[in-house]
Model the fold of this input.
Amino acid sequence: ILLRIKPATRTLWLLVLVSLPVCISVCRASSPQEDSAMENIVTEKKAEESHRQDSADLLIFILLLTLTILTIWLFKHRRFRFLHETGLAMIYGLIVGVILRYGIHVPRDVSNITLNCQVNASPATLLVNVSGKFYEYTLKGEINANEVNDVQDNEMLRKVTFDPEVFFNILLPPIIFHAGYSLKRRHFFRNMGSILAYAFLGTVISCFIIGLLMYGCVTLMKQVGQLGGDFFFTDCLFFGAIVSATDPVTVLAIFNELQVDVDLYALLFGESVLNDAVAVVLSSSIVAYQPEGDNSHTFEVMALLKSFGIFLGVFSGSFALGVATGIVTALISFFLRDFQLLETALFFLMSWSTFLLAEACGFTGVVAVLFCGITQAHYTYNNLSPESQDRTKQLFELLNFLAENFIFSYMGLTLFTFQNHVFNPMFIVGAFVALFIGRAANIYPLSFLLNLGRRNKIRSNFQHMMMFAGLRGAMTFALSIRDTATYARQMMFSTTLLVVFFTVWICGGGTTQMLSCQRIRVGVDSDQDNSVMLSVFVQISVGEGSERRSTKQESAWLFRIWYNFDHNYLKPILTHSGPPLTATLPPCCGPLARFLTSPQAFENECQLKDDDSDLILRDGDISLTYGDITVSTDASGAHTSGGLAFAGASTSDDLDRELAYGDHELVMRGTRLVLPMDDSEPSFTEPHHRMRM
Amino acid sequence: ILLRIKPATRTLWLLVLVSLPVCISVCRASSPQEDSAMENIVTEKKAEESHRQDSADLLIFILLLTLTILTIWLFKHRRFRFLHETGLAMIYGLIVGVILRYGIHVPRDVSNITLNCQVNASPATLLVNVSGKFYEYTLKGEINANEVNDVQDNEMLRKVTFDPEVFFNILLPPIIFHAGYSLKRRHFFRNMGSILAYAFLGTVISCFIIGLLMYGCVTLMKQVGQLGGDFFFTDCLFFGAIVSATDPVTVLAIFNELQVDVDLYALLFGESVLNDAVAVVLSSSIVAYQPEGDNSHTFEVMALLKSFGIFLGVFSGSFALGVATGIVTALISFFLRDFQLLETALFFLMSWSTFLLAEACGFTGVVAVLFCGITQAHYTYNNLSPESQDRTKQLFELLNFLAENFIFSYMGLTLFTFQNHVFNPMFIVGAFVALFIGRAANIYPLSFLLNLGRRNKIRSNFQHMMMFAGLRGAMTFALSIRDTATYARQMMFSTTLLVVFFTVWICGGGTTQMLSCQRIRVGVDSDQDNSVMLSVFVQISVGEGSERRSTKQESAWLFRIWYNFDHNYLKPILTHSGPPLTATLPPCCGPLARFLTSPQAFENECQLKDDDSDLILRDGDISLTYGDITVSTDASGAHTSGGLAFAGASTSDDLDRELAYGDHELVMRGTRLVLPMDDSEPSFTEPHHRMRM
Done:
């Protein structure tokens, strides 16, 4: 790789700053025609050089990613688990960053002239009249005044710096969409209440705790004289918001590999997916906090209310938009079977248009895309042909992989190539302490409260693990690099980088140690709900009936209502799965129901086709409700009858009991035949291979 | 769709041209702090508005594509073949273009001020000092002097105009790569000589014929006074080069659907893929033709030789680079099995880096990508796991579909939104005539010459069909929109657009009529080589032996040498398929051969694993050569022994004879069991579906 970087630097292209002698009298000796021809050639050459440089820059990243992939392959091959691909990408990025920063010195170009164009505004587009010809320039950004002089030295570093909006508009959306699209696990829905609590309440708590602590830290710094610029309370809150977005991708990868407890996995994954959305909207509402009047950093109730309104408005708007597009896609794909390419293309385009539509409407595209992904997984996925299901999964898996590793390697690179780092030891130490306290204030109190209501308690070792798995990643980085104009933001950005490095390497690398230290069981049979099956066994042997009532009361009533509505009405309308509407709607709506029900749904009546009936495992309860309406609606066939037998199956705290049953493996195998298949990640287990070339 | 465009225009953002009073005395009343804060807010708002506008613009295209997909689905459903998806995309683009152009009028912004910054050069980057703050601007392009005044009205139209380089650097590469990656059909290799002749010789002939005719036309126009600007001979040649790139995607889609003769398909597809590469390099060499001295448009031998050198250098450089990256990928993927995601990601990244590397080195990325695709298909594909084979195929299929339809819908749009159209009736008529003559001068003489050498003659109805199928498409458009600065280029661009529209709609739409008119057989059993199998039958009944010698002489000796080398050495080294090296290398190289041979290759000895042994169908010849080296090398097992029986099987001109054998269907079925599977497009025939959610 080091050898390959050479051409990138060889073809290095220097910024030519042309002097503008203010009030120059145009002095040109040669004929205009020839001159313009020469000028055209010069311009073309410049553009070509610039294009070559851009290609070389991008090539660096592509080769970095390639190198990461090769090393990862080696690691996977040797079952080396201390370093995740993202951590590795960062290391390679760091190395390249060091080389670019210290290894390469560009000789000064003598022909450079500096231009100082005195204008009284900075429009986004500038028209420049060069000897009668008009050239259009677009605003790239502001440059620090003290950097203008050594712009030349930094030019190469600035060249490998991407527009921060690239992260938000190109790299993050596929990552977030993929997270939403792969969220469709029954364990997520089973733990939905807790996940929502951690993601919403927890993120807000964490944001404000960190914000307050940092404000204390900053005030202290000001008094000690360590602060080199303004740092307002809103800045502290903003910092709290951006570092509250957790991204335990490293931890989850290890969880997946070691088959750690599924509930813990669901809690962590669900929290990290949703708190990204909360953090984005929260940070943008904090930025929008603008009290009127002269001093723009005082407390003002109206401005606070406005910010709160923005939070609610943007979040619900993005949510609604994402869900709406998902539903539209589901309806379209309802009809669009048989043409896989068209299906996949439509799926991709509709998901992308969610992002664009949200951005164009002033909502947050990333949030919209997340909820669009969840909706697509819930409805559209069922309408796709099996091939398209694979295709879409694989497509977004690939995009996610590439975007994630790109971001992490860029993070490593930018630690050395970013121009305006402000490393303040006191701020950094303060931030780490605040982060720790903020995470603790999120996990432990909420877990305590949730445990009051949960039957399947979140045990203390799970809580410690969740505390430990509060890694920061792509979203935190993207939020912090978005605006690095002020001193406060620069300090935040530098600190954020260190936080990401520390958590990904140390916490990510120590996951296996932490798991064994907390004595968290590994090797749980993938996503198959071991504990439920065990508890079924327990129930059957202990005798059912007595516990049914209590379970029914404990499962969230709101969620049960939603599930019924979704299963009886939305699923049949939007997808080919689920029971026919004629069975679920009251008899008076007969014609309407027949009109809306797809032919496939009637076929479903006989056989188990509803892939989502495993969404909730305690569906003994649901089949009861469902059974009230009509007797013949038992769409999930064998499954529901199995579910009835399971009624009241308590989902956990049997984890310790399981060892008492030596023959549980046998029961599990027996039960698995009844339970529907799992929605694990596509397990590419050798589809019958027809295409040979 | 029409309703949805509204927000795009509502959020319209106008270019603010700020006056630069040269030598202004900076007059600012308010405090600098507050002022800069206000300025920041204004800048942020502007940036946000601009971002929203960009999102809305992109959304238009995404919705256009969505609409195209839905309509195409309808067409496919109803088996409506007169309009291909690309033609449809153009129509939708046209409609939206008309609306944008005539339907929407932006009210004039009164606050606009015009800036005239007198600078004596147009650097790619401009630093502007706005009241002490430095802003960086990047060059976007030149604006016509007469447009500066009504820049405002056109702003919206210019907003939906993409940077022409987007086509070359983002949209074309996946299209071209996909073409190369799906070129791996044995019929392509069987007709390789003819395809190369059409693509190289034909394109050069066509380019020069069209160039000369257009020069005549332009000279005439000048005398009549119809010409409004300069139009040099190099411009004419350039026009000839860009319109020589054929793109019969519409025709090929119909061929595929109707199962037209495979040789005709291979000839057309192969020609269109390769002549794109030739046209790109040819046009860039013509642009590079720069005689020294004052008059830059005279004839000069040195400049001509230099251009010729550039053509050879760039083409061979791009070719070498593409092949090299393909081989590197093959070598890497040799080891990288078992991790499908990593495999696919690596494949994608390596293919992309080919493009970037070529661009960074000054070669042509598109050409490199084409040959990279062909190499990947030939070697890397065999090393991929079956899942990755599917994944990569599907990925590039999707990218190709999206990019192609995007380009065509943009073409439709740009007919109305492009600002500098120059429609000159005389030039347009001349261009159509020249195109017709140029295509004829390519097809008919070359076919005559090729028929002298070909056993399987290209019959006259095939020639007419090839003549008819000379559609122009994405490549021609991308080449012509790349530079629209001068009058000549603008006229070329407008004319090219009309040429694309005409050929895609008229020629594309008339394909089925033309097929029946030329009495070209349809419904040939897909890619199964019907004619060969029939001829085998013929040979067997007629008796073999007598014809073997003549066939051996007729098949291209150069190609035979290459095939032997490839099959015996390259394939075993680079892929898991092919015979083991120990068998093909001379005994003295034993240890080296054992070192280089993969374990799989030894397994291959027993069973047929070489998916490419069907590359050449007359491999009776090859197995003879091959048999000379060692007796036990018969890697392709049953197939080769079948092939020996087929020796001398003349591949065609039995097409008419076939009807004489009523029972040929039976023979075909019998033979097909022996022949290896075909490399048709991935036929997604229900892989065993394991993943359910």
Notes: The two ends of chain A are 33 Å apart (CA to CA). The beta strands of chain A are 117-119, 125-130, 133-143.
